[in-house]
Design brief:
single chain; 331 residues; eight-stranded mixed beta sheet; 13 strands
Length: 331
């Protein structure tokens, strides 16, 4: 395998890692190489800002003529908030483009073919797996035309998320709760049902320092929210989707540019997403206690026998203080 561009692509991936996450746009980095020397580098700073290629070309200046552009994602070939990067690269005199990941977005893809058709050499697949991993949620959403859904729940060893008297704070310890904050910070939206909103009056914000943007708080269900509830404050935006249909919920969020959903709803909302086959990941926090009775972590009336169970593959098991975190993905 030709590895001559690995070092430059590694630098481009490091640039891409500076891009915001989450964001409606993918994380992209670009470096311009001339005579085995990096003369320009850039990354995408978020929706509405210049793309990584444009930033790198500006830094390279006239040196870009005859140079190579190394970019983590196939240059876009459409006009959105900005012009097509494929055209900008050609206009700058770039003669070779090295690409890690092809663009799965049909509205923006085609840059590689357009550049080839205009005499630019294209090298593809350089560190492609690393580039795809960097944009895993965005890539998933482009392919499936909906956000990826991660269902998070906390429960006792016997699968109870609340005691018989309804108390649930706190089943898990501070280490697990900190991990929840980190998980929320990676998502574009936190989703709960009206039942959870009315019973718990949650804030649904990321309580970590330096968070540039709070996720969208989404409440699913028909019941109204009280005017003085926390979800109506100005600490984060809130969207009330008056529906019980998970497909409709995800469609609305997809059209808002959200690529990852953090599902924190109660047992019935979680069951509705499972029944619709719309849970892609599970993060389970299990506390070393047995409640014996109380609210189950999930209620899915579509499962009546073992053969109808929803199956997941365990990716990781981690000790968090006294608790256990299980991370799994859908088969």
């Amino acid at each position: 395998m030709d590895q001559r561009w690995d070092a430059a692509m590694t630098l481009a991936l490091n640039m891409a890692g500076k891009s915001p996450c989450p964001d409606p746009n993918p994380r992209v980095g670009c470096v311009i190489v001339a005579d085995e020397r990096v003369i320009g580098q850039g990354w995408h700073r978020g929706a509405g800002t210049p793309h990584a290629e444009i930033e790198a070309l500006r830094q390279a200046g006239d040196g870009a003529r005859g140079a190579t552009a190394v970019v983590t994602l196939e240059p876009c070939n459409h006009t959105g908030r900005t012009g097509p990067c494929s055209h900008a690269l050609l206009d700058a005199g770039i003669t070779r483009v090295v690409i890690a990941q092809p663009d799965p977005n049909p509205a923006a893809s085609g840059g590689e073919q357009w550049l080839r058709a205009h005499g630019v050499e294209a090298v593809t697949g350089v560190l492609g797996e690393k580039a795809t991993t960097l944009n895993a949620d965005w890539t998933f959403s482009q392919i499936h035309r909906r956000p990826r859904v991660c269902w998070k729940y906390a429960a006792s060893l016997d699968g109870r998320s609340a005691a018989p008297d309804g108390t649930s704070q706190w089943i898990t310890g501070k280490e697990a709760r900190h991990q929840v904050q980190l998980g929320r910070s990676r998502c574009g939206a936190i989703v709960i049902g009206t039942g959870t909103a009315l019973a718990d009056d949650p804030r649904l914000v990321v309580r970590l320092p330096g968070v540039p943007r709070q996720p969208l708080r989404v409440v699913v269900g028909l019941r109204d929210l009280p005017a003085d509830c926390h979800l109506r404050d100005d600490s984060a935006p809130t969207l009330h989707i008056r529906s019980h249909d998970p497909v409709e919920v995800l469609d609305q969020l997809w059209h808002r540019g959200i690529h990852r959903v953090w599902l924190e709803g109660g047992p019935r909302l979680a069951g509705a997403f499972l029944a619709a086959d719309l849970v892609d990941e599970v993060i389970a926090h299990l506390a070393p206690m047995v409640l014996g009775d109380g609210r189950a972590a999930v209620i899915d009336p579509t499962v009546t026998s073992l053969s109808q169970a929803h199956h997941f593959v365990i990716d990781d098991v981690t000790r968090l203080g006294p608790d256990i975190q299980i991370h799994a993905h859908h088969e």
